[in-house]
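Bit of a strange request maybe. I'm writing a small parser for structure token strings and I need a real example to test against, not something I typed by hand. Could someone generate the tokens for this chain?
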Amino acid sequence: MTLEELQDVCLQLSMPKFTAKQIAQWMYDKHVHSIDEMTNLSKANREKLDSLFCVGSAAPIETNRSKDGTMKYLFPTEDGQFVETVYIPDSDRATLCVSCQVGCKMNCQFCQTGKQGWHGNLTVRDILNQIYTVNQLGAEEGLTPLSNIVYMGQGEPLDNFDNVLKSIQILTADYGWAWSPRRITVSTVGLKTTMRRLLDESECHVAVSLHSPIPEQRLQLMPAEKQFTISDIVALLKEYDWSHQRRITFEYTMFGGTNDSTLHAKELLKLLQGLDCRVNLIRWHRVPDVPLKEVSMTTMEHFRDYLNNHGITTTIRASRGQDIWAACGLLSTSSRTERISENKKTSSQTL
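Reply from user aminoacidic:
Good idea to test on real output. This should exercise your parser:
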């Protein structure tokens, strides 16, 4: 809940308005797991809250550690399903790759999550629980604290826009984590209607999944191109000013012999001409039963250098966590969707 919603709860339960700030501090600063731990609230008020609400904290049920230090967590959701979350340490920084849906509707050809199908949106509680819990577990284990959050896990963030936006608002609010929105990146295939809302209602960085500058080929790789063309998305982005701290990045997963030629690089330059942006090249990790080929590092470097030499800042994303199926495009909980959660659902609402 936002601070305003907590204030409404306090009003409904005849509790002082300032109690809402106390509750927010317990949840978003001290990360308590139960209402009974909110010790500066009177016992009577804690009992009132506890009869109707719960904090909503839930620990991961599995943790996998990669040989490169990447960690993948399996979290239960409020409706008894599961999502994966990836912690990526890098020297004195650490990024959390957050999921926003169980599965995904977009069905991109190269993505394991898309093969799972869509099984529902995560609630704000499900999204925030990944972030707060991983950060707390990391503190207990002496891991690097989170420095960045990317909505790049399972699901399409703009297909669950209201819950994603609310989670960002809480993270960046004074009563929440008070994070700068520049520490948060939202990735999308380009849902145009909600993208405009994202651009207008938040200050987060944006990453657009591009993967081919040729519309016909992008459609084969990404069915979303049929409804949300990349040319329309780029035109929308050109309406905004990207010359300051906010950043727009295009994610470009490379496939051997498919989208890795100089022709593709030239078409990419034409498409992005006049837009202050950068391109992030991503190595594709083989997905079962997908007839695409992996690309060599030499080819990726040539593609990167060509774009850099022609005025578009381009980098190659380091591949992390492939050995535990935590790398880009490999997240899936399809084998878990029929499993009954051990955490019983209750009638309590989440604060």
